[in-house]
Fold this sequence. Notes:
By secondary structure, the protein is of the alpha/beta class. The protein is built from nine helices and five strands; from the N terminus they run βαβαααβαβαααβα. The chain has a five-stranded parallel β-sheet. The longest helix has 16 residues, at about 175-190. It binds adenosine monophosphate. Adenosine monophosphate binds near residues 11, 33, 61, 66 and 94.
Amino acid sequence: MSARLILLGPPGAGKGTQAVRIAEKLNIPAISTGDIFRANVAERTELGQTAQRYMDAGEYVPDEVTNAMVADRISWEDAANGFLLDGYPRTAPQVEELDKMLTNAGKSLDLVIELTADTEEVVQRLLGRAQEQGRADDTESVIRRRLEVYEDQTQPLVDIYTDRGLLIKVDGLGEIEEVTTRLLAALDEKLGK
Ligand code: AMP
């Protein structure tokens, strides 16, 4: 069975970790725009150079750049039967663009999962991660900016997908395993998988 899913949620809610676990269970690729950008930064591609200055400041990479990258990635063979998008769409124009990509391919979204988390909790998590991984965008001021940008630009997507009847909320607090169990139970209930 195929599934086209979006995982929404603030930075630090644990989307990346959970996306990989859920996608593996469903046998679909987890597509993380943040990971693709970071890989391009590491490889010093042109895309990476464009993306890096936005990422380092906690800002979003421009929609045209991000949309083109996702259009390419979801056209790969491994995504033919579905995918779990982690960190995309993040703006209203990205929502529209994804709609077009899917419509053109004769496909549609199955479900949008909002992984919820308390702001102070995610700041603490991100600061902890900064110490472990040394990500350039994990300093406290950049973290606060990322959360602000999320509130402004991405939080409105919750309403968009709620209006379409596609959104469910899952509590992102707790142990990794516990949250995965919650997510899988929610998917099972909604999609029978
Ligand atoms: P993430 O790992 O998902 O938190 O993404 C890290 C950074 O990559 C973000 O702070 C943005 O600068 C950039 N990024 C990732 N996904 C998107 C997106 N859908 N739109 C714009 N920028 C993005």
